[in-house]
Amino acid sequence: MQKTVYIDMDGTLANFDKMAEKFVGFNGKDFKNLEKEFMTPEQRARQKLLFKAIDENPHFFKYEEPYPFAKQLYYECKKIFDKVSILSNYTPPKDKFSNLYEVRVHKTNWIWEHIDPTIPCSDVIITNMPKYWYATEYSWLIDDMIRNINMWKNAGGNAILFTDWKSVYQKLQLLKKGRIR
User: 61: exposed, middle or buried (C-beta count within 10 Å: 0-12, 13-18, 19+)?
Assistant: First the structure.
């Protein structure tokens, strides 16, 4: 079977937190991996403000800075997996569903500009559907969101939580050597 890896964009390849800081004055790290029921009222209000700013500025993703290791992450994955795709999620509010098209264009162009202009469109997946829909027993997800990692694993996929480049690189090397499957 073909081994596929899906790499998240925002927070894994692109510095989402830095862009959020520019837009709203805070980065959301303190609530990024919390479920709503565990957030304080202040954290919920800040999350709502951040999502509103993004919904009102669909070009937000166009200006994210790539992490210095972004290309290396992509190319390390190409050495290990049969197929490498970028899987990024954006769920627009019901009254701004047209934002999804604009966000897809900006994110795809960002990937071609900062990662590799030869990545086929079929390997750039910008969706409003849950990421776990792509999970199989032969697929991997590299993502910075614990919620996405857990849902992916529950759907039968394999996953690496992105916390920093060094730890992800080490896990990829173990995968390459066949020490983890």
Answer: buried
Return the closest-CA partner of residue 110 out of 141, 65, 143.
Answer: 65
End-to-end alpha-carbon separation of the chain, Å? 13
Other Cβ atoms within 10 Å of 47 Cβ, number: 17
Whether pLDDT at 30 is above 80: no
How does DSSP assign 116-178, residue by residue? -TT--GGGEEEESS-GGGG--TTEEEEES-HHHHHHHHHTT-EEEE-S-HHHHHHHHHHHHTT
CA atoms of 9 and 13, how far apart (whole Å) = 5
**What's the predicted TM-score (pTM) here?**
0.91
Count Cβ atoms below 10 Å from residue 110 Cβ, excluding itself: 22
The pLDDT tens digits for 78-90 are 999 999 999 999 8
Q: Which has the closest alpha carbon to 3: 176, 132, 168, 127?
A: 176
10/24 Cα distance (integer angstroms)? 16
pLDDT of residue 154: 97
